[in-house]
């Protein structure tokens, strides 16, 4: 299929040789391929190119499939994920986080840890009744004294929170940021391998500040705070798009190829290498897709951006 897509690209860009054009004309004798090419042509016509940043619009909004990403729900107050390699791996996770928790909370206590595996999600209920939907390849932990004097959780990854109102503050630690909550619904994305942290507010009120910095940034409903390169920026956005992952949808807004590759790794479990590495920041993509397969997503990126994708023994190589 990849060779056929390469041929489509040559035709759409006007770079097809006479031999390639003849091969294309032969393919178009097949009604199903006519329909397929029509879908690619529509995407190509809607793509917006910004040469300096190599940015493309709506390159992923096609080819819907019925295949659902496995969604695992668990509602427990204290839940520990044991890695597929066995209980020992799960114990290592707890021991590793124990030292971190001791530094954060100032005393030695057994943390409660929830970890989702690649391609899976879970829903949990905190001791105060707050609901958390944890995205794939994410970890959330909290102290066993949660809800006594302070409600504090530590997030590495992405989660959607529905926080129960209380006089006790609710705080989310996400890498360099602290998010203070006052009974609300919001989404936080703070993966260790992404170069940006995002917090979007759907209802209620939150404030965000960098650790060690007294300056607080307050968000209103319909706003998103983006923290990148040590800078805070608040934007008016369609906040529902940033939590649409709960329904197996993804919206990209000028997202770097590197961050997209990270997302694909978390969702599908394959390792992605980008060569040269600078390509990961040079190519930016905006668009959306809904329940797409990995092959369809890679085909769309390849068609519109001009990068190539090759499957290797240990994953995929994206190259120019």
Automatic annotation (TrEMBL):
Statement: the UniProt record of this protein carries the keyword Cell membrane: no
Membrane-spanning residues: 79-105
Give GO MF terms, alphabetically.
Answer: sigma factor antagonist activity
Q: Which residues form the FecR protein domain?
A: 113-206
- Swiss-Prot/TrEMBL keywords: Membrane, Transmembrane, Transmembrane helix
Origin organism is Mangrovibacterium diazotrophicum
Protein known as: FecR family protein
Domain Protein FecR C-terminal intervals = 249-316
Which Pfam families does the entry mention? FecR (PF04773), FecR_C (PF16344)
Tell me the domain of life.
Bacteria
């Amino acid at each position: 299929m990849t060779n056929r897509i390469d041929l489509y690209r040559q035709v759409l860009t006007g770079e097809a040789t006479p031999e390639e054009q003849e091969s294309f004309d032969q393919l178009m004798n097949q009604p199903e391929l006519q329909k397929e090419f029509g879908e690619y042509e529509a995407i190509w016509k809607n793509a917006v190119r910004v040469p300096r940043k190599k940015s493309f619009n709506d390159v992923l909004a096609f080819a819907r499939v019925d295949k659902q990403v496995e969604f695992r729900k668990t509602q427990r107050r204290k839940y520990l994920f044991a890695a597929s390699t066995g209980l020992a791996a799960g114990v290592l996770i707890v021991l590793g986080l124990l030292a971190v928790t001791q530094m954060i909370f100032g005393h030695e206590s057994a943390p409660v840890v929830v970890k989702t595996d690649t391609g899976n999600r879970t829903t949990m209920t905190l001791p105060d009744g707050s609901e958390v939907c944890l995205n794939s390849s994410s970890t959330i932990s909290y102290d066993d004294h949660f809800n006594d004097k302070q409600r504090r959780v530590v997030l590495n990854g992405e989660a959607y929170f529905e926080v129960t109102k209380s006089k006790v503050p609710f705080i989310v630690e996400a890498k360099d940021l602290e998010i203070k909550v006052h009974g609300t619904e919001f989404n936080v994305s703070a993966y260790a391998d992404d170069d940006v942290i995002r917090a979007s507010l759907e209802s209620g009120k939150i404030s965000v500040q960098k650790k060690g910095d007294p300056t607080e940034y307050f968000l209103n409903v319909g706003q998103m705070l983006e923290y990148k390169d040590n800078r805070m920026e608040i934007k008016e956005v369609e906040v529902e798009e940033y939590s649409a992952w709960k329904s197996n949808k993804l919206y990209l807004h000028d997202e770097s190829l590197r961050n997209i590759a990270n997302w694909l790794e978390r969702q599908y479990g394959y390792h992605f290498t980008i060569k040269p590495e600078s390509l990961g920041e040079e190519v930016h993509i905006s668009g959306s897709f809904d329940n797409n397969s990995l092959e369809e997503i890679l085909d769309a990126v390849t068609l519109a951006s001009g990068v190539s994708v090759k499957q290797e023994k240990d994953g995929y190589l994206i190259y120019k």
